[in-house]
Structures are given as C-alpha cells and as structure tokens.
Amino acid sequence: MATDVHHPDSAYLSFWRERHLCTLTTPRPDGSPHVAPVGVTYDPEAGLARVICNRRSRKVANIVAAVAADPAGARVAVCQLEGRRWATLEGRAVVRTEPELIADAVERYAERYQRTPAPNPDRVLIEIRLTRAMGNT
After folding, report:
1. Which end of the chain is more exposed for a tag (fewer CB within 10 A), N or C?
2. What is the C-alpha to C-alpha distance for residues 131 and 15, in angstroms, rounded to an integer?
3. What number is the average pLDDT over the span 115-126?
4. How many helices and strands in the chain, by DSSP H and E?
5. Phi, psi of 8 (to 5 degrees)
6. Which helix or strand (DSSP H or E) is residue 45 part of?
7. Pairing relation of β-strands 2-3 and 123-136?
8. Structure confidence by residue, pLDDT tens digits, 92-107
9. Which residues contact 126 (CB under 8 A, 6 or more apart)?
10. What pLDDT shows up at residue 1?
11. What long-range pairs does 27-36 form, CB within 8 A, spacing at least 24?
C-alpha cells in the first residue's frame, strides 16, 4: 500500500519510530542488489531516511560508484518488518561527510535505537532523499 513520504499516517510513522533492524539495498556496479542490515531513521518532514555507517563499507562503495555515474544519487531502498507488518522507503542516496550532519544522524539513531553508537572517525552518513513509501502497518 502506497504512503505519502512527507505525510505518512500515524501507524506507518509509529512503525518507523519503533526499534527494528532494517535492510538497505544498494546497486552493485554490475547492477545486482547488495542487501545489508542497518539502522535507519525516517524524517518525513525533510523527506529523508538516514543510515550511519563506516566509510569503508561495501554499501558506501556501491553508492559512491552509482553517484559517479548519476549525480542524482544511487537508487536504494530501506525496509523493515515484524510479522505481517512491513515498511519500505525508496529514494536516491548520497554519502555525506559533514560532521554536523553525521552528528545529527547519530542523535536520531540514538533516539530510535536507545543507544549511542561508539565514536567512529570513519563514520559517514548515507542520506536518502525519499521518492516512495509503501507498507502494511
């Protein structure tokens, strides 16, 4: 079922506020999908999903390669599920390295997952400008 990215219903938004492990699907250079477990935060007001991770990860390399080919961003999806409930956010991803954006993403992660990640000088932010939301919540 389609959902408005910027104005999700309360059940959809509540599901994205609960603590759930998610997956991020990125395109490999050969076009095949790479799926990795991640923590995701959803910001409907900004139309963004955020993932913090290590700059040396395969998912970051995939996004960097895709952005080199298309500066609009890598086409990605994040998904979470619990039983029959599921939610997917799709959009265009870029890798951000600005310290203030990473710090904000870490705070959002800490709020959703109820733990602050250990400091990591190699941390980057995968910022996803959302184009589609769907699910069954």
Report:
1. N
2. 19
3. 97
4. 3, 8
5. -70, 155
6. none
7. antiparallel
8. 999 999 999 999 999 9
9. 24, 50, 51, 52, 53, 59, 60, 63, 76, 93, 94, 95, 96
10. 82
11. 27/62, 27/66, 27/74, 27/75, 27/76, 28/62, 29/62, 29/65, 34/58, 34/59, 34/62
Phi, psi of 125 (to 5 degrees): -115, 130
- What tokens does 84 get? 């029959």
Of all residues in the chain, the percent with pLDDT exceeding 70 is 100
pLDDT digits (tens, 9 = 90+) for 19-51: 999 999 999 999 999 999 999 999 999 999 999
pLDDT score of 73 more than 90: yes
**Mean pLDDT along residues 109-136:** 97
pTM score: 0.96
Which ranges of 2-85 would DSSP assign to H, the alpha helix? 10-17, 58-69
The answer to whether 87 touches 137, Cβ cutoff 8 Å, is yes
Structure tokens belonging to residue 107: 């705070």
